[in-house]
Design brief:
Length: 80
């Protein structure tokens, strides 16, 4: 996966919800959400299941720390 594809997947995750997370995320994936803390694997999907999704998202500033197949590290600050 290249950087462009990684950011497109990131954008889709904000918009499409838990079903896409089930499809794309590895069971060992870690995500840090400021108000919640660090979630892993199925915890991520459970936390997002039933949550309202965004209609659109602008991701900025965005930074990719690395692309090590099959891992990607990103940093995102999103605005609704």
């Amino acid at each position: 996966m290249d950087e462009r594809e990684a950011w497109e997947r990131e954008r889709r995750l904000w918009l499409e919800g838990a079903g896409l997370y089930q499809q794309l995320l590895d069971s060992e994936c870690l995500m840090a959400f400021a108000p919640v803390g660090i979630l892993a694997g199925v915890e991520i999907i459970r936390a997002l299941d039933g949550m309202p999704r965004w209609l659109d998202v602008g991701i900025h500033p965005s930074r990719a720390a690395g692309f090590w197949a099959p891992r990607v590290v990103t940093s995102v600050h999103g605005d609704r």
